[in-house]
Amino acid sequence: MPNGVGVMEAEGVQTGPKALWFLIWGAMALFAVVSALAPGWILAGRVGIVAGIVLAAAAVTQLALGDVRLSKREVTLSGVAVVLFVTGLLTERVLLLPARIDFSAYYVAGHVVSENPPGRLYNQLTFPDGRIAPLDSASEWKDVARRHGVESVLPFVYTPFFAVLMRPLAYLSYGAAYGVWTAITVMLTLVSVWLGVRLSGWRVSVELAVILVVGVFSYHGLFEELLLGQADSLLLFLLTLGLWLLQRERQWGSALCFAVATIIKITPVIAVPLLVMHRRWKWLAAYGCWMLGLVGFSVWQAGWAAHAQFLHEVMPSVSCGIATIANLSVVGFVQDLFLGSTPANLLQATLPPLACAVSKAVALVVFCAVMVRFYFYRRTESLEVQVVLVILLSLVISPLTWLHHYVMALLPFFYLWGREREVRKDYLLLATVLAVGTNITVFPLPMLFKGQIGQLMMAGVIPCLTLALVWFRAGGNSGAQISLDSVA
């Protein structure tokens, strides 16, 4: 009996703190999920914010005391999750954007391509400097929107193929379609995160799963995507599954995933040079076949007129980007430097004549420089790592990169984090994750800098951090780490 009591006491020592840990982190996970899916409901008053801060304080106390046995990597990830959680309470949930505004464009586009014959898919005015004008003159789109219960709609700037993908949702009511789209977004995000963690070889324990839920649903990009009804989780899933299949030598399946991602958002095509460098000819042949088939299917469903309009009107407009602090690409940052300020209104500033051309040239130089670096390290670094890094590079050089686009960065972040075999921390990766996940360089820090120089510095933080992470990691894992040991 005494031995039995001793065993029970020993078990109590282990299970007590662990049960408390699961209670605290489980409550934080529930809090994060509900507030992301129903913003403003759980945080309608100060009570919700105070309750969230109390939970975060309890979680930090447990981390400081070391009550629960977590690996050093999990402890660091827990700290990041708490920072994202608290920042979300104090910033992103307060600054609410108009809900569904991007999904409304997808929904109307689905209705337009479902017509027989298809209607005009892109109804927008464009300025010479690349700005996209309001839809005051797009009476056809407004009529379609009103008929289907859509109050306001932005210009549709995705490819015709994506409008074809949205066609099934057009048979539902607007509210039901948005609910289904949100459920799909959450499911694809969770599957992608699990695949990304597993790709790195990191074992997913129950504790890690709870930490991931708190961190992912507190990640500002996902919150913004869910609120706007964006499509970034679909792209995240396609790229993650494509890499998963590539790792298992499923060339045709991997190529299909990348082809679909490319025909939705053009920038994933920059992964093709990597496959050329690594002489994956079978993959490249499969990719070419899938692209031809998908383009043919898209033309069949949406009509050639929509594709011609996309190539001749939409792409030239979008490729010039928009000068604003919210555009986190190198293109947008260079244009901010041209203007000497960071316009808050997307349609406020007219770019100088050379700004568009120079910003594109800078993006091209960045792309070529990184590709050359990939080439020289192609024998010492795996193709998987380079594909992961090229996803981050696509965000840097894309003409338009809003913070919700950084949902696609969840794959590189978790993959790179999981590959760290050493105890040392990569502070460059950590800084990039925190800058992107908290949104503090877009809001609220710029509000503290009244001068133009300070705001320009804030506008360059995320693109510069992301590019630095890609550059150093492209040189091999050992040379990429900016650790506490190296700083000391």
Report mean pLDDT, rounded to a whole number. 81
**Category from helices, strands and their pairing:** mainly alpha
Which segments are poorly predicted (pLDDT under 50) over 5 or more consecutive residues?
Answer: 1-14, 125-137, 478-488
List the helices and strands in order.
HHHHHHHHHHHHHHHHHHHHHHH
Roughly what fraction of the amino acids lie in strands? Answer: under 5%
Rg is: 23 Å
Principal-axis shape: globular
Number of beta-strand segments: 0
Could you describe the largest sheet, including whether it forms a barrel?
Answer: none
Give the helix proportion (percent range). 55-70%
Tally of helical runs: 23
| Terminal Cα span | 54 Å
Describe it for me?
This protein is mainly alpha-helical. The chain has a domain of 170 residues. Helices cover 68% and strands 0% of the residues. The chain contains 23 helices and no strands. Helix 17 runs antiparallel to helix 18. It is globular and about 65 Å long. It starts with a helix and ends with a helix.
